[in-house]
Design brief:
alpha/beta, Rossmann fold, 5-stranded parallel sheet, 3-stranded antiparallel sheet, 9 helices, globular, binds 2'-deoxycytidine-5'-monophosphate
């Protein structure tokens, strides 16, 4: 039987709702969802826990790390050496550390190899920064999500409040801008739109409207064959 399943690569700036839309699309298509940002965050957590200060120490630690995924109540949680670390990786501190360690070439090679392995059987929705450009340059459907920085800062602010943190909006906005700068200017696999990616700016779309747009693109790509 022909495998009609495709690879869907979703890239874009931080806090523009990539994971929400990627999860919803994976559910709709019956595909596996992989949050690559969580993999970088898991390594970042390890470096914070072990106070690894320089790149060399991080690189030397890579062979000791096993990053995986597990399912808890239908939600995907990232694991670090078998421990479910999902509760610890969504803080600003870990996000900033993830942004730093994601600039290390060896860290990227370590994770990219694992991510490519996950796509061998297709039927996957993967989100990140370099999925359509580096991990799956031949993905059948590439989406590049974006939203205005102020809109993204407000979304992140609301998420942090919901988690019981006490963020300051101006700091969250500065953080979004800093992270955009780092993500787009790093030497290794900077965030950029693949030439064949479809740009979706969701600043003024409701989640439902965005989902309709994306389902339309998926159906068009697969001709309803899924
Ligand atoms: O999407 P996120 O905020 O969870 O990602 C955390 C950090 O990891 C972010 O600063 C960029 C980096 N990242 C990356 O460099 N490449 C990816 N494929 C995914 C995330």
């Amino acid at each position: 039987m022909v495998n009609d399943k495709i690879i869907i690569a979703i890239d874009g700036y931080s806090s523009c709702g990539k994971s929400t839309i990627a999860k919803a699309l994976a559910r709709y298509a019956g595909y596996t969802y992989v949050d690559t940002g969580a993999m970088y965050r898991a390594i970042a957590l390890y470096t914070l826990r072990h106070s690894l200060q320089n790149d060399e120490d991080v690189i030397n630690a890579l062979p000791l790390l096993e990053i995986g995924f597990t399912h808890v109540d239908g939600a995907q949680h990232v694991t670090l050496n078998g421990e479910d670390v999902e509760p610890y990786i969504r803080t600003l501190e870990v996000g900033n550390a993830a942004s730093r360690i994601s600039q290390i070439k060896e860290v990227r090679a370590f994770l990219v190899a694992q991510q490519q392995q996950m796509g061998v059987a297709k039927g996957i929705v993967m989100d990140g920064r370099d999925i359509g450009t580096v991990v799956f340059p031949h993905a059948e459907l590439k989406l590049f999500l974006t939203a205005r920085p102020e809109v993204r800062a407000q979304r992140r602010f609301d998420e942090l409040v919901a988690k019981g943190e006490k963020p300051v909006y101006a700091e969250v906005l500065a953080d979004v801008n800093d992270r955009d700068y780092r993500d787009t200017h790093r030497a290794e696999s900077p965030l950029r739109q693949a030439e064949d990616a479809i740009v979706v700016d969701n600043s003024d779309l409701t989640p439902d409207q965005q989902m309709q747009v994306i389902i339309g693109l998926f159906e068009e790509k697969t001709n309803g064959k899924q």
